[in-house]
Give the backbone structure.
Amino acid sequence: MRTPRLGWGLAGGGRGAVQGAWQVQVGAAPGAADCWDSGRVAGDTQFGVVYAGQALASRTRYHWRVRVWDGAGEAGAWSAPAWFETAYLDPAEFPGAWLGLRPADDSERRPLAAARLVRPPQPHGKPVTAWQLPLELPAAAEVRSAAVHLMSEGIDNPWGGGGISRHLAVNGVQPDSGDHLPRSSVMTFDLRAWLKPGANRITLRDFTGDAFIALVEVVLADGTRLSVPTAAGSAWRCRGVEAKESWDDPAASGWEAPVDVGAFGAGPWPADDRRNRLDRLIPALLLRRTVTVAKPLRRARIHATACGVYELAIDGVAVADHQLAPGWTDYRKRVHYQTYDVTALLHAGENQLTATVGDGWWCGHLALPFGSDWYGTEKALRLALHLDYADGTSAVVATGDGWEAGTGAVRLADLMEGQTTDLTVAERWRAPLVQPAPAGRLQAQPDRPVRRLMTVPVRALTEPGPGRYVLDFGQNLVGHVRLAVRAPRGTRITVRHAEVLDLKGEVWTENLRSALAVDVHVCSGGDDVFAPSLTCHGFRYAEVTGLPGGLRPEQAEAVVVGSDTPDRGTFTCDNDLLNRLQANIRWGQRGNFVSIPTDCPQRDERLGWTADTQVFARTAVHNADCAAFYGKYVDDLLDAQHSGGAFPDYAPANSCPDKGRFGWACAGVVMPWTLWRCYGDTAVVERAWEGMRRFLDQRDRTAVGDLNQDWSFGDWVSPAPQTPNEVLNPIYHAWTHRMMAEMAVAIGRNADASHHRTRFAAVAAAWQARHLGADGRIHTSDTQAAYACALRAGVIPAALEAAAGAHLVRAVERHGWHLNTGFLGTYCLLPALTQCGQDDAAWRILLSESMPGWLYTVKNGATTMWERWNSYSPETGPVNVGNMNSYNHYAFGAVGEWMYASIAGIDRAADDVGFKRLVIRPVPGGCARHARGEYRSLRGTVRSAWRQVGSRIELEVEVPPNCSAEVHVPTRLGCAAVVHDGATPLGDRSRHALFAVGAGTWRFSAPI
């Protein structure tokens, strides 16, 4: 960035403190102003100050400081110097080649290298081909692990066929993980739970009669390993099946031996077909270089990126605590690189610089719709180490000559399958290969990295079967298990991950679908520590098998991994269930913020779903610093935008149909709007403007009479009846035009603002004419989501808001004071009730402890948010509803916005930008007798704390300097009944007395 933006928070200054002017200085040394001195600038600006000094240089540290003048014109002291450092201002400055490696032999290829591509001996003319392996296990066999690896020409659009379709059966059971098969990419599925001693049958359904390849691997408790690949003359067999015929009929006849088609990686397809490139290097790529430091160093910086995910070390010491770098972008558009200060890690003489590269998002199993190898097939690293010496000279060590490449202990590193680490494998080194560069442009990472955030100890350990240990970490989280063990050389330890246990106390993995989520560790014979940091799992429980000497809790811990978004807000009250709910929301956010905002972190999906992101954004901002994280996600949305204007259902994306589905694609507008409203970020609005305008032009173009009717997921996972799309679709269409009009004013596009206000009015009027009665009733869909979304979007006229709110309350009452909403409606429900003066109804819904409801999940053991309200019950245990059941899905956690705004009372004025004009409006209710909230905004920290003492309420408010607040004191007796310490009365409402305050701490006491 050639023109960084600077900002500062304020503290102190006393009551009513405001900023009247500011001055920024930037220099080459602390306290210097040789690069820029803004001079005294009148105004209260605190952030978004664009650097306007001399041109910045690459790879240079700059120091800056700020001072402000108060409202009386008195200057404050200079701040302590801060600094920022540039990387490469021009990507062309990044030296070095992309270094990779090809497999040396079958040990460095996929397991399918041991199998052969086969097909039926002759065309059978039927729509389905069934493939079956009869498998005989010893009579007393105990299966430690079992998996099938396979690939088929099959269907490659698993979400395009509609509905759920099983394609795997084991002994007559069709596990949920066998959904969405076959694929024209390599998939691996866990068979262990369904195999038994004696005779077994494994059957797969394929929609073609062409190339198919598979390998079944079984490891028994006594160490016996069985491997059965497809090949002519093997036990595998096939037959043609009619569409309605059972493809797993145990009595079926007509089985035939297949014929050979070719070796894996040399299939019967054109030479450039992607399936021929799946025969690639599977172990982690290793690269190393000796770095000689010839004289005293002043500083040393590494700039690095990878096709894959990488880790760096110098003399065996990790360069940083980063995880899964460089993160997920559409590598066809952008590739991020990171910068590390390694000055303290280098010493005079020779240093060993090493890199380990796993598959990651580049070529691993990316997500259900993608398969594997979507962006590329070969892992690679690009790195430049800059050595700046004390005598003013410098040197660069970049990837190219002098490097070695190889493989070693990490035999598999896949985000979905897991990581296999074999410490009995020796490293094999040879010359690297220069790989083609990815198409995307190099860009310094704009957001904070994914890091190791914390560790969590084992809370409980059980042994449900001999040698099978289940670790309970007490918290559903995202990361990996760190295991310290000592076992005989070659001991194979398997770690399986799960979010919940079944009623028998066994790990329950059906909801993972095709995500294997298994880490394998092979011991060296000494003291080993396994930390599979090139993968990532969502789990609370881990099953550990294979340890001959037992397992103690202190040998394991969970390493929590996520994007580094520091905490910014807190909420507490005296209701323990609500405090647990707040903790669940924060853990759900922490676990789903891994480079992108994902829907879930455990199953074979983990996508940046746009609806989940946009409904949760306001809650997320209250919890943590999301400015850079969401700013990067806006770039992902823009990268994935369709040429016709539509934003995708998820980003990064592999394709984007020209649909622009409401509630999902709307994130392309909602996210820039949220960043502007919460952080005052007009730069992201400018950057996204043309994309947002093209999206809304597409929405206008496809509307009929200003009413959009295109299909969408709608109020996703709403209990029946779900609000029709035709009702919600125009609401979001109008709402996004309203947001665009507001943003247009902020960036000085007044003509555009007029256009979008006109479009909002037209769409709202068309919706009212079609759906809204004169009595405020939505006669086409008298549902909670219809009223809640319409009220929040502002498409119901102000004169009818109270009436619509009363209809909303009746809709809630019809459902026994439970919510009846999905992702879109739940986000809007409680704020809409408060908007209409129905706080009591909002409290009653929130505190419901039966299903569906937030506290139902808490009382049933949730430690993160669930995707569905009916995911679990004490009677049934976990339920895989519709093969789509995540126990870490933050969308319903959007209620956190209401908890901050209406329980703690921290909110903003309707037209506020950046928490400058605050509204403090606590709404005591339910059984809560006190609550406290805090939010550290860019301007400073705002706090609100209230407590009921007898028949009175005591409220304390802290407002940051340069800000003001409208304080709503809960009382029915008006301002005259309020005891306060100098606030300005504004008037009375039915339940609150209103006061105006400036910066400082203010106290109120009133009868309630």
